[in-house]
Amino acid sequence: MRIKHYGSPPGNRNDWKTIKTLLPYLWEFRTRVFLALALLGLAKVANVGVPLVLKEVVDSLDKPKAMLALPVFLLLAYGTLRFANSLFGELRDVVFAKVLQRSIRRVALKVFRHLHALSLRFHLERQTGGMSRDIERGTAGIRFLLNFMIFNILPTILEIALVCAILLARYDTIFTLTILAALVIYIIFTLMITEWRMIFRRNMNEMDSKANTAAIDSLLNYETVKYFNNEEYEARRYDGNLRLWEQAAVRNQTSLSLLNAGQGVIIAGGITVIMLLAGRGVVNGSMTIGDLVMVNAFLIQLYMPLHFLGFVYREIRHSLADMERMFGLLETSAEVKEKENAPALQIREGAIRFEHVDFAYESNRQILFEVNFEVPAGHKVAVVGHSGAGKSTLSRLLFRFYDPNEGRILIDGQDIREVSQKSLRAAIGIVPQDTVLFNDSIFYNIAYGRPDATREEIIQAARHAHIHEFVQSLPEKYDTMVGERGLKLSGGEKQRVAIARTLLKNPCILVFDEATSALDSKTEKAIQAELEEIAVNHTTLVIAHRLSTVMDADQILVLDQGRIVERGAHQQLLSHDGVYAHMWALQQQEEREQALKAVGNGLQPGA
Questions:
Q1: pTM score
Q2: pLDDT over 50 (residue 8)
């Protein structure tokens, strides 16, 4: 089963689907949402009341000087409405703040958890830099969408309705019709141009993600760039994506200016027609100066948020475009799915059995064929073979990063597909061939094997992995930072940290996937002796290239092109004079040549 490759925005997502995805997070705080909407309504009522009071103030002052009196009450009412509009708006923000921030937190956490639930195949194909930028833009889009969709579009619609109702009740129908005509033209123009502009925004997002992917990938491979003197090549590759982003950004800004200019023409035209009508009303006596001021105030109050509404609509569409890639991640299904209410793995002895296992990463390239073997409880079984024979695939299947295409894998008689993945992985500890550490301290990286372990237990695990003395020699000891992916440590030091954290986990089943491949001969022998002692009470699967490290295994499986071609103890396999015996002879010859070369250079063998 292939998962959907993550890269381009999913074509079947639409804006309503994106908005519906957010609704459950709002419904959780529905009381706060309704209270915020009520405060919003009060703020808009107060805002609409301001021009009405202003009209009365102007009319009361538009009298002969002998009859003039200061309208104190009206002026106080005017100030009170202004203050109420501001107060209700701030209270609305206070009430809604928890809804907004909690929704962003919940969505981000859901995406994070989902990414960890996806299969190894997805993470091997992903582009980390672009994906992180998509998540960053998506969460920012949620913030904008919730804030402005609820607190700008809805109140503007409410305010338009109130203003039209007041004008229709007080004045000639032509005022309301003119405003509505201008609104319809404005909205149609904004929708059409904004939809046309969305292609530029999506192109910007895609180019931005690609540029970020190139930058992160290059920085993570800093040493490789330096080895091959390819700084300028990386800069050109990065700039190539930036150039495409620049072109999309220029088109985006040009089309934005066209939209803003068109909106300005429509608003200016509407205001001019309304003011001409109001001016004519004052001249012919059907309206007062206060009426003219009120209509003007209404238009200013109406068209300012309406002009902003154009910006908000554009940004909401942009936010939806930003969010669709992030929510597209949530639609990526996990290749390895856990059964509903799957029971925990019940470890009794820790026996492992592979039964008729076939597996292929791609349909046209099968890796394993009819693999059958058993690791009895407390025993040590080794798998050896040439590179590409499928050895490491066995550990990936055991951890259930993938499921077999055929056959099954049992632990103490339980099919690992029938139990919870959490309990399965808790029972297995692995020291992988390629050790990657967190960009944190040595202490943190060892403690990762069991985060609730005591400091004494962590140090004891370091001693068993023969890294304690090295750590103590460092200026900051266990607080030494290891750098991105552990690059501040040598390959051997990283591998010993990996061994220490696996020993700290203390699982029933141990898997060593070329666990000592990065160590020198002296350190390898010391750790091998320690691992042999630890493996006594554990079921152990060893995947190895160096045959000298698995001579003591209870059984050795020889894997060749995905098939087990030989099995038996070390001496048995040598006596068969088959694939294993040939590999042994080659490695012994290589070791003798290396020893002679070391002696010739005046060094001790294995130094």
A1: 0.63
A2: no
